[in-house]
Amino acid sequence: MDRREYLKLLGAASVGVTLPGCAPQAPASAEGPAGSESTDPPGDFEGYAPQFFTAAEFQTIRVLTDIIIPADAVSGSASQAKVPEFIDFTAMDREQLQVPLRGGLAWTDEACRRSFGNRFTECSGEEQIQIVERIAWPDAADEQDLPGVSFFTLLRDMTASGFYSSAMGMEDVGYRGNEAVAVWTGC
Fold first, then answer.
1. For 3-53, what is each residue's pLDDT tens digit?
2. Which site from 48, 113, 180, 181 is most exposed, i.e. has the minimal number of CB atoms within 10 Å?
3. Total count of domains within the chain
4. Helix 83-93 / helix 95-116 crossing angle, nearest 10 deg
5. Is residue 179 part of a domain?
């Protein structure tokens, strides 16, 4: 089974999950969450202003989700399906995800700095894949990488949930939705 097929199965299991509503809140500034200072560039996210993540964190989320679900001949990538926006909304709405996500992004940048001297988004595509390979396979990961493994597992699950509950993801798996059927022919 290839990665896309595996993620389809994960996503299909989460299609029925709904998010509880969230109260409107003021968006985080380009400097980041309230009370934090950042030298991150504001970024251009096609008119979307991250509500929870800083611009640099959101860019990292975009790159990682596209590594998890890249565009192929069948459908677009996770970022084209607006999965980073889904993750940002979910993190804003669910406090229990905020520390694991933000901590995991910090771990990822620090691992890249130690290995390559740059933040994750400043690394080459090959270097980014090297870091992802270290944390994508829990059974093969070194103990020092376990915080990254936990983060990546959470992000991979959120990416699959977001993608396969989007219109693009549902089309990718051939979900037809609630269609009237004139004659039931069975399975």
1. 566 555 555 444 443 333 333 333 444 334 443 344 444 445 578 899 999
2. 180
3. 1
4. 120
5. no
